[in-house]
Amino acid sequence: MAKIRSLALPDIPKLKRMISMISNMNSADAGFGYKSYVPFPLNLINRLLPLSCKFAPDSYIAIEDDKICGLITLKSQERNPQSWRISKLFLDENGYDTGRQLVSFAIAKYGAMGANTFSVKVDENHEELLELFSKGCGFRVCASEQLWKMTEFKVGSSNLDKGFFRPFKDADADAASSIHNDLIFPHFRYSLAKNPSEYENIIFSGLHKTSYFKYVIEDGSEHAIKGYFCIQTDDNENFTLDVDLVSAFDGYLEDVINFSISQIMMRRKRFNLYFLNKKYQTNGSKTEKFLSENGFKNVKNQIILVKDYYKRVAEDERYTKPAIAFSEITRKPAFKI
User: Are residues 60 and 179 both part of a single domain?
Assistant: First the structure.
């Protein structure tokens, strides 16, 4: 059995050598190194903090015979310390048991600290990894997401005036989360629903690697928010668009895409635009059809696997509960005096 401990700075060169030897590893994964390592003493501080106060991902490595044979990295959903994602998992050859041990370690550690949902996104063609999480680690296949890339620049006639769009404010968080959660099929809602706090703007967002540009669609006549969308980028060249529209506004998806393109072009003339289609939402199939017919190409399909630690249902304390005494009945011969 491998020994598991936190990732340390001297482990980076060994880890990079291990990753470089793994077949079918893309350049982004192989580039794991100093940028993904939280430097000392920040890593030590982050490790000791409760889940609600953690500010960086945590990484752990498995060591067997003085050799690194695996790594796992966990990061929380934005502003939701009870929900954690496995964002990296690197395993050496024949590392099935090591992977199961790393995942079990992470779930046990963070579950004991208060996390109740763990998730991972796996490419649908990665059968070995899907089997590891589903059969080896007890994750259940929950839903799927698609990533579409814009291959043809199309700007159609607008049905919505630009006055309907405005920048997102923290006061819109409740409405944005409600739209997202209402769109989710009921049987996926517990695992994939979002809290309003997950939408709130991050303090010192300019210091983060990822930049977010958030907007809402507001119907001024009703003073109601009808949609939320977010443009995010890590490198100011590749942009991902995530859109949630109430059912009655599905027909305005083209307007949202055109508005997003105009906002990106204010910052950069040459770029790649990707669209995240959430198949676990009621409009997922309709969105897929629209993208396929309007200059987008499906470039990735991911399976979302989830493992839940269900919360205890709060009991109604208004009712008095009787005391309970239980002792197993044993049949013994009675004593005669």
Answer: no
Reported as a single tens digit per residue, the pLDDT across 41-92 is: 888 888 889 998 888 889 999 999 888 999 999 988 877 888 999 998 988 8
Are 94 and 154 in a shared domain? no
Single out the residue of 84, 129, 88, 135 nearest to residue 107, CA to CA: 84
Classify residue 120: in a domain, yes or no.
no
Q: What is the value of pTM for the model shown? A: 0.81
Average pLDDT of every residue of the chain:
84
32 vs 15: which has the higher pLDDT: 15
Paired sense of beta strands 272-278 and 140-150, if any: antiparallel
Q: Does the residue 331 lie in any domain?
A: no
d(CA 15, CA 36): 12
d(CA 286, CA 260): 20
- Give me 43's structure tokens: 């890593």
- Calpha distance 159→172 (Å, rounded): 23
Q: Does any domain span residue 105?
A: yes
Residue 273: phi and psi, rounded to 5, are: -110, 130
- Both tokens of 185, joined, read 């099929």
Give the residue numbers spanning the domain of 191.
149-301
How far apart are the C-alpha atoms of 93 and 323, rounded to whole Å?
Answer: 56
Structure-block tokens of residue 116: 């109740």
- Domain total of the chain: 2
Cα 18 off chain centre by: 26
Express each pLDDT in 83-124 by its tens digit: 999 998 988 888 889 999 999 999 999 998 989 889 999 999
**Angle formed by the axes of helices 253-265 and 284-293, to 10°?**
60
| Residue of 34, 82, 78, 85 lying closest to 58 (CA atoms) | 85
Q: Is residue 250 part of a domain?
A: yes
Radius of gyration of the chain (CA): 24
